[in-house]
Amino acid sequence: MSDFKAPPVPGADDKLASGQDAFASSSGGVDHQTSDDDFNLGGGPSHSSQKRPLKAPPAGDALIKVQPLKKADMQPSYAQDLGLQDVEHGFYGSMINGLGACAGFFGQLPCCFCFPNPFKEVNQGSVGLVSRFGQFYRSVDPGLVAINPCSETLRIVDVKINLSVLPRQTVMTKDNVTIDIEAVCYWHVTSPYRAAFGVGDVRAALIERAQSTLRDVVGSRTLQALITDREGVAVQVEEIVAGVAEKWGVSVEAILIRDLLFSKDLEASLSSAATQRRIGESKVVAARAEVQSAKLMRQAADVLATPAAMQIRQLESLQAMAKTSGAKTIFVPMNLMGGESAMSNLATTQQLSSI
After folding, report:
1. For the Band domain, which residue ranges apply (predicted)?
2. I need a labelling partner for 108 at 20 to 30 A (CA). Which of 28, 139, 175, 270 fits?
3. What does the pLDDT look like over 303-314, one tens digit per residue?
4. Angle (deg, nearest 10), helices 307-323 and 264-304
5. Quick one: 185 and 170 in the same domain?
6. In the prediction, which pLDDT does 4 show?
7. Crossing angle for the helix pair 230-245 and 202-219, nearest 10 degrees?
8. What angle do CA 60, 65, 70 make, to 5 degrees?
């Protein structure tokens, strides 16, 4: 059986040589940007010529770039180990600790369901406080924590920013006006040890302290000052509460007055006072306008009281009367024609009539 040989393709050797040169000239690797036409040995249409060209994104479109999270922006580390070298628990403590270690060893096996699992999970935004025989000795960051199930306990403390709503309370202002007030408090734990072991319920203690401080601050201000300077009242309450909360391991971010609620009688009186104030302001504006009008009329009267102005007005009246139809007699005042000329004309008229 003879070997079959394919007929040579015209120009194949030249194409192959050029392809090898291009591969050798690269920096030791394959040039992925080389088109398929350079390696088309058959001389036929290449696959790249049949593909549609990729469209470049418009120049005006902005590219969204995701910045990597920096370590400074993440949750700060609260991990700390105080150690228990100087603490002695005696034979009983050592026995319980040993039993817990054995139980934890078998509990971490997937097939042993009768033993407690020694691994506990601490979520992001929280801190774990580990105590041995009731005594705190280390704090752990978020993640998987291994504890002794018989001698150690894990307490989770939330260090995220919390929102506490101060319940509505009735307070009295300095001018003996009773109102209902609502507020909110933003806070977070800065010292997990103080917040967990220094205060029984840090949230309830903070809310009660903020409520009492709000009553004191509102009671030292009038109703008008409370309405116009609500932000100032909130800042004053925040400063007082923040000083006390710092001892509890809590930082107060802000305290805001959410709403002021008035009784129906107080709303009616405030509305009536506002209406009367607007009426009084309108009367003041009208009185000022009348005074200004009187001043202008006085100035006009002073100008029109001159003899020349009076003669101009008389002439205007005569012109208006002359424009009307029908026979009429117009009496021209002597002062318009001049006193001496009028008397001379009258004497001449009398002499002519006597002749």
Report:
1. 117-278
2. 139
3. 777 777 767 777
4. 90
5. yes
6. 44
7. 140
8. 155
pLDDT at 163: 94
Two structure tokens written together for 14: 């030249």
- Tens of pLDDT, residue by residue over 16-69, are 455 455 444 444 444 444 444 444 444 444 444 455 555 555 555 556 666 776
Nearest to 166 by CA among 213, 200, 236: 213
If phi > 0 it is left, if psi is from -120 to 50 it is alpha, else beta; for residue 134 that is left
Rounded to whole angstroms, the Cα distance separating 355 from 353 reads: 6
Q: Is the pTM of this model over 0.90?
A: no
Question: Which residues neighbour 164 within 8 Å (Cβ) at sequence distance 6 or greater?
Answer: 184, 185, 187, 203, 206, 207, 210
pLDDT tens track for 228-283: 888 999 999 999 999 999 999 999 999 999 888 877 676 666 666 666 667 777 77
Distance CA 202, CA 211 (A): 14
For residue 221, what is the domain's CATH number?
A: 3.30.479.30
Which residues lie across from 181 on neighbouring strands? Answer: 169, 260
pLDDT for the residue 72: 64
**Paired strand residues for 255:** 185
For 307, residues 6+ apart whose C-beta sits below 8 A from its C-beta are 335
Would you state the structure tokens that stand for residue 334, as one six-digit string? 């002597």
Q: Containing domain of residue 152, as a range?
A: 80-158
- Please check whether residue 210 is in contact with residue 166, taking contact to mean a CB–CB distance below 8 angstroms: yes
Asked whether residue 183 falls in the same domain as residue 96, the answer is no
In a domain, 347, yes or no: no
Q: Give 291's contacts (C-beta < 8 A, 6+ positions apart).
A: none
